[in-house]
Fold this protein.
Amino acid sequence: MLQDLSEGGARIVSPFPIKAGSPVRLDVDDSILLGEAVYCAKAEAGCYVGLRFEQCLGRVSDLQRLVDALMGPQPNSIPVAR
């Protein structure tokens, strides 16, 4: 569960520990955020995990529509509302 989100990172609550340095992917709205876990601390309901983002791909649905228009729908494509 997402607890806090900023331009460079986030804090989530995870049901299991995530080791610092582990790669992470966070899907938020129409964006994919890629980065790494920077800390993990025990919480009442799981673990607090701090994330640092290294890459952000925004407007994913627009990108998927472009790919579909150029190449036709792909077997593993993300369904996009039209």
About this structure: The chain has one domain: 2-71. The chain has a mean pLDDT of 87. The CA atoms of residues 21 and 63 lie 29 Å apart. The two ends are 28 Å apart (CA to CA).
